Amino acid sequence: MEWLERNVPKLVLAPSFVAILVFVYGFIAWTAWISLTRSRLMPRYEFEGIGQYERLFAAPRWDVAMDNLFIFGGLFIVISMVIGLMLAIFLDQRIRAEGVLRTVYLYPMALSLIVTGTAWKWILNPGLGIQATVRSWGFENFTFDWLIRPEMAIYTIVLAAVWQASGFVMALFLAGLRSVDTEIIRAAQVDGIPTHRIYSAIIIPTMAPIFLSAFIVLAHLAIKAFDLVIALTNGGPGYATDLPATYMYAMAFSRGDLGQAAASAMVMMMVIFAIVVPYLYSELRPRHDK
Amino acid sequence: MTSKAVTSNTMLRWGLYAVLILFALFYLMPLFVMLTTSLKSLEEIRTGSLLSLPRELTFAPWAEAWSSACAGTQCQGLRPFFWNSVLMAVPAVAISTIVGALNGYVFAQWRFRGANLFFAAILFGCFIPFQVVLLPMAQMLGLMGIAGTIPGLIFVHVIYGIGFTTLFFRNYYVTIPQELVRAAKVDGAGFFRIFFAIFLPLSLPIITVSVIWQFTQIWNDFLFGVSFSGPGSQPVTVALNNIVNSTTGVKAYNVDMAAAIIAAAPTLLVYVIAGKYFIRGLTAGSVKG
Amino acid sequence: MTMKPLLAASTAVMLAGPVLAEPQAEVLHWWTSGGEARSVAVLQEQFAAEGGSWTDMPVAGGGGDAAMTALRARVLSGNAPTAVQLKGPAIQEWYEETGLADIGPVAEENGWEAVLPVRIAEHMQCEGQWCAAPVNVHRVNWIWGNKQILDEHGIAMPTTWEEFNAAAETLKAAGVTPLAHGGQSWQDATVFETVVLGLGGPEFYQQALVDLDPQALNSDTMRQVFDQMRVIRGYVDDNFSGRDWNLATAMVMNGEAAFQIMGDWAKGEFLAADKKPGVDFVCAETPGGGFLYNVDSFAFFKVDGDDRQQGQALLARLIMGEGFQKTFNLNKGSIPARTDVALDEFDDCARQSAEAMNAGAENGSLLPSYAHGMALRGAPAGAITDVVTAHFNSDMTSDEAVEQLANAVASAM
User: Fold this and answer.
1) Across the interface, which of B71, B142, B228 has its CB nearest the CB of C32?
2) Strand-by-strand arrangement of the C291-294 sheet
3) Rounded Cα gap, residues C39 and B255, in angstroms
4) C356 lies in a domain?
5) What is the CATH number for C13?
6) Main location per UniProt (chain C) (predicted)?
7) Which of A188, A288, C5, C24 could form a disulfide with C311 if both were Cys (CB 3.0 to 4.6 A apart)?
8) Residue C355 included in any domain
9) How many CB pairs under 8 A join B and C?
10) For residues C234 and C264, is the Cβ–Cβ distance under 8 A?
11) Which residue in B has a C-alpha nearest to residue C61's C-alpha?
């Protein structure tokens, strides 16, 4: 009985522990194994070696996908943070109708790209959307044709992704701004420090953990970005907007090249690992010291 | 204050509002296109501009999308699939939130050796791309005998939701002073007593965050829905995809758009109604590192 | 007519022993668009009329990608659907991975061997046993033209790629978009394979895109093919990226473009819009002729239970039945896989297609379409498409394309 009492916390965690062990780490191990086989349509378990990785790194399409991940991920994270922070600071100025604006900024997070994909495709299509509309207003030379230009199409993905996530980042930052100690701010105001200085020197530095949280949420969205690409460009023109997740999906499910898909998944996982582990370290470390 | 300062201040505020409204328009654009298109007749969609308001309102596309749009050989609209999604999302959200709350409670207040490592392991699980788990998961569901059923889908969503809900609750509960637990223990209260008497009553903001997040994720999911459902258990996103990809001669864009809005309505509603609490919940500590 | 239920019963008895259960079928397919859905509905009605119970499992999107994802998950979870829309070498690939049900008794009883072209029958067999049933034959290498525009500019349907280029230049000079095209990789691949066939001839096509002969892939002919693709790139409008094929067809219909290169499913769009062949639009084989086929079929996985096995037998028989073959193909724009179905109710384009198929079966120009998954397995076909679409959508030179093609194919083998 006493043993039970002492071990209740562990018993509560046990089901989750087993579930995560099997359904996350077990599956990663499974994928790692498959990446070393010649699995095609369905999994096969005979060991083959690292041939799939050699193929992967030799494939021009994979290079494009990885380049795109860094272009897309970098821009998406930076722009979302900048816009999110800006909107949060602006909304924090005792704005009328703040509730309405907040909801408007936040709602894209509620929608899946399966739902908004068609609308976005129309808006970005030069013959139907913004370009056509602005031209019909009389600006004949207005051009907005990123969607159909291979070297620019990836930026339309960034645009739609920022649309979806920046409101959420705004919410995170707004929450952060609201939890800053108002005493300090009032003291600063009394001292006659201008508002922009108060933000840049006092408030924003205290929000470091929120930057980290936002970064992690965004990085997670960037790496998992899949629906977005499928809905907007389906990887095109050509494969100019391919991302690792779409590459992997294409290999696994439309090409019957499961081994190759598993290899690409493992590389993706390593990228994730490289990003997440430092975060986890910094997140969990200070608490030890407390 | 000098009058000059007042003018520049007014200017600044106007500028502020201008920027905020401009962004609001940007965020609203896709919804605007969807909404207006769903209310236009096909004829008007063909001839008119994409961004114009409908000349004549018609609600026929909405009725069709709900109850008679065709996907494959069935013409039942979204209705039956909508209920599948409800039956899937509600238990999945509830279970993953409860599990997350208990886990978070342990991680925040009942530390033991290795707890941090385990927490890190759970967090890392949040980042696993879902495409990776499709095939082994299918095998597991088959072994467990719940493949192609709604309980199967609930199971999958709970498993991959635990990471986030645990994170939310742990970060929230960690701000509650440990002295509270210690005092309660001295009074002889046990693990669950303390949870129900002290922690749960304080948890409303973070429960809101967890429910909103999980509901959005689960309701909007397509990949698990299409892979792990059988006939009769397909969620609304799969049906939406089928309807949008079905054409009968001419593509009924208005019906597609109406269907898309219907499929998105529950999550939209949750954000509109509970959005305020969402921010409040985040403020209450869930994002403090 | 009275023979058929009798045959069904006897088949069922053969397959399932003395117990007669209600035939069950759960059918996984991605036929969700207009004519297709109507045709599946016909099959469903026939199935029900013979006492069967049909469960529909449509998974649309991505040209069957989503359906194939669902199929893998279903098979891995040990819960394979009764019948699945599958085609080309994928049938044999699945047979090797998991085995497929033997529908030989149905095929023999109904004399499939005698009524199917040999090349098409081969696709339905796995190691000599029947494992799939064909529903139609699409011809991929069609070029569609807007009659009015062509007449206006005095242009005849081109029979060589040079003629096509000349016609396109005339149209371009007159301000008409010569070719309606959608920039999706499978559409790029569709145009590519017709150019390979047109410039290289049937033998070259067979070597390059069926046998994957490195010499053919790395030949001057292949270089010329990519040159021609670059020329064609100049004939499409600016907004072609990501456009669906049926929207491209609509451009030809509405006079916004003169030609489209697309399989005969495009005809269904013309017909659905009440356009008449020979009056509003013209169909012709793509320059160089030959016959690239795309055959839709249903494969039958191994399932347990008499009711489901009987469902498979019944479904196989109905699919190959003359009635269904006719109705389905009238709806879909293709021609029956059976060569003995009367074509009276079909239009001129379909009859032309049937003639070309029979002629092609004789002279060896009846060839599987690589772009539509009939010639190659997924990995090499996808590798080729990657190169084709990358070349078409960038300024890659033909030399680079040929080099990449050879590498990509070699690594996908």
Assistant:
1) B71
2) C138-139, C291-294, C366-368
3) 22
4) no
5) 3.40.190.10
6) periplasm
7) C24
8) no
9) 100
10) no
11) B245
- Asked, as a colleague might, if the bond just before C277 is cis with ω within 30 of 0, I would say no
Which among B142, B223, B238 has the least Cβ separation from residue C76? B142
Read off the pLDDT of residues C7-48 as tens digits, 9 standing for 90 and up. 444 444 444 444 457 899 999 988 766 667 777 888 889 999
Report the residue from A12, A120, A249 with minimal CB separation from B30.
A120
Residue A167 domain boundaries: 61-289
| Per-residue model confidence (pLDDT) at position A197 | 86
Query: Of A269-273, A283-287, B231-235, which gets the smallest average pLDDT?
Result: A283-287
| Contact (CB<8Å) C77/B245 | no
In degrees and rounded to multiples of 5, residue B198 shows phi and psi of -110, -50
C163 in a domain, yes or no? yes
**Contact C187/C241 with Cβ under 8 angstroms?**
no
Task: Give pTM, 2 decimals.
Answer: 0.89
- Region of poorest pLDDT, from A275-284, C186-195, C196-205: A275-284
Q: Indicate which CATH number applies to the domain containing A96.
A: 1.10.3720.10
How does DSSP assign B194-258, residue by residue? Answer: HIIIIIHHH-HHHHHHHHHHHHHHHHH--HHHHHHB-TT---HHHHHHHHHT--BSB--HHHHHH
Same domain, C128 and C176: no
State the Cα–Cα distance between residues C123 and C117, nearest whole angstrom: 10
H helix intervals, C33-133: 34-49, 65-76, 89-98, 104-109, 112-115, 118-123
Predicted confidence (pLDDT) per residue in A162-190, tens digit: 999 999 999 989 888 887 777 888 888 88
What is the predicted ipTM? Answer: 0.87
Identify how many contiguous H helices and E strands chain A contains and give both numbers. Answer: 15, 0
Contact C295, C120 (CB under 8 A): yes
B186: Cα within 13 Å, side-chain hemisphere: 6
d(CA A202, CA A207): 9
Q: Is C357 inside any structural domain?
A: no
C95 and C78, same domain (yes or no): yes
Residue ranges of chain B whose CB lies within 8 Å of a chain C CB = 70-74, 134-135, 137-139, 141-142, 147-148, 223, 226-228, 230-232, 238, 241-242, 244-251
Residue A282 placed within a domain: yes
Arithmetic mean of pLDDT over chain C: 90
Phi-psi region of C5 (alpha: psi -120 to 50; beta: other; left: phi over 0): alpha
Domain tally, chain C: 2
The encoded tokens of residue A32 equal: 């790692």
Distance from CA of A206 to the nearest CA of C (A): 46
Are residues C224 and C102 part of one domain?
A: no
In a domain, A66, yes or no: yes
* C119 pLDDT tier (thresholds 50, 70, 90): very high
